[in-house]
């Protein structure tokens, strides 16, 4: 199957999906290899129902259950309901409106996210991606040498608990899932390539540096990665499906225009054999 490249620098590939797309026809190894290469895969114009969406996710790996249960699509324990409206699943415009990789607050290797456009906005709501392999490789050699063995401190549980105390609200089930974790600033992807690994909200300090030096370094790395040279902006159409590898890309949700709705369904898959 032909893959149409979405950028000039290797990030993103559009697969030849169509209304009759059937995940049972696809070779899982071929699909994973394309995902490893391009970081983000796009399927335009699918007519997948929830069962087909789940079947697609299982070609990648083992699916995670959604917690808390009220964020599940009814009847589907692996499918998360997301929207830009209070009371309709996860507020993805709030939870995902900053540069991040899904699963940063876990001690597991980065997984794969699958996102299906159920109701797309007439204006706004793009999903932005950064190729963190390209961002890493384009750093000067001296900077790569300085950063290569550093680690980021993600006090996710502490920060969420602090927010619950200060602002009220929050969900104890979500708090129970979160960990205070340390991740390397540079990870190896499934193909053995190196990629920066950052998070705009949860990464607050480089473990080997003091706060002042950490702030300077992280500001510099974020500015470099998000300068636009390594970015793909996805404008949603009805029935789009995106698949991305969180070890390869960082992403963020752009705001939806006033009065517009955006509803998506999300799966998280863990590679059955993960070399990240």
In short:
The chain has eight helices and 18 strands.
Task: List strands and helices in order, with pairings.
Blueprint: E1 4-5, E2 13-15, H1 28-38, E3 40-43, H2 50-60, E4 61-63, E5 72-73, E6 76-83, E7 90-91, H3 92-95, E8 112-119, E9 127-131, H4 132-137, H5 141-147, E10 151-155, H6 156-167, H7 172-177, E11 180-184, E12 186-188, E13 194-196, E14 205-206, H8 211-225, E15 231-234, E16 241-245, E17 249-253, E18 263-271
Parallel strand pairs: 2-3, 6-7
Antiparallel strand pairs: 1-2, 3-16, 4-18, 5-6, 6-18, 8-16, 8-18, 9-15, 9-17, 10-11, 10-14, 12-13
Description:
The protein has 276 residues and is α+β, with helices and mostly antiparallel strands. Helices cover 26% and strands 28% of the residues. It has helices at residues 28-38, 50-60, 92-95, 132-137, 141-147, 156-167, 172-177, 211-225; strands at 4-5, 13-15, 40-43, 61-63, 72-73, 76-83, 90-91, 112-119, 127-131, 151-155, 180-184, 186-188, 194-196, 205-206, 231-234, 241-245, 249-253, 263-271. The strands form 4 sheets. Strands 1, 2, 3, 4, 5, 6, 7, 8, 16 and 18 form a 10-stranded mixed beta sheet that branches. Strands 15-9-17 form a 3-stranded antiparallel beta sheet. A hairpin with a 2-residue loop joins strand 5 (72-73) and strand 6 (76-83). It is globular.
């Amino acid at each position: 199957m032909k893959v149409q490249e979405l950028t000039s620098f290797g990030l993103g590939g559009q697969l030849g999906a169509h209304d009759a797309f059937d995940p049972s026809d696809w070779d899982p190894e071929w699909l994973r290899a394309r995902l490893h290469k391009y970081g983000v895969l796009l399927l335009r114009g699918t007519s997948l129902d929830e069962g087909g969406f789940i079947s697609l996710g299982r070609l990648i790996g083992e699916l995670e259950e959604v917690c808390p249960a009220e964020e599940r699509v009814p009847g589907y324990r692996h499918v998360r309901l997301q929207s830009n409206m209070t009371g309709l699943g996860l507020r993805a415009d709030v939870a995902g409106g900053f540069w991040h990789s899904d699963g940063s607050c876990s001690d597991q290797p980065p997984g794969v996210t699958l996102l299906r456009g159920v109701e797309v906005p007439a204006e706004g709501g793009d999903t932005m991606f950064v190729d963190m392999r390209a961002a890493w490789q384009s750093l000067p050699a001296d900077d790569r040498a300085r950063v290569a063995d550093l680690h980021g401190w993600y006090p996710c549980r502490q920060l969420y608990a602090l927010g619950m105390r200060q602002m009220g609200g929050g969900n104890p089930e979500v708090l129970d899932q979160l960990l205070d974790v340390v991740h390397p600033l540079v990870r190896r992807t499934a193909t053995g390539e190196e990629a920066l690994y950052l998070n705009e909200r949860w990464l607050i300090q480089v473990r080997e540096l003091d706060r002042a030096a950490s702030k300077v370094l992280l500001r510099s790395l974020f500015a470099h990665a998000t300068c636009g040279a390594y970015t793909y902006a996805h404008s949603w159409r009805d029935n789009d499906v995106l698949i991305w590898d969180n070890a390869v890309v960082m992403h963020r949700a752009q705001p939806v225009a006033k009065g517009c709705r955006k509803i998506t369904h999300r799966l998280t898959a863990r590679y059955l054999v993960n070399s990240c």
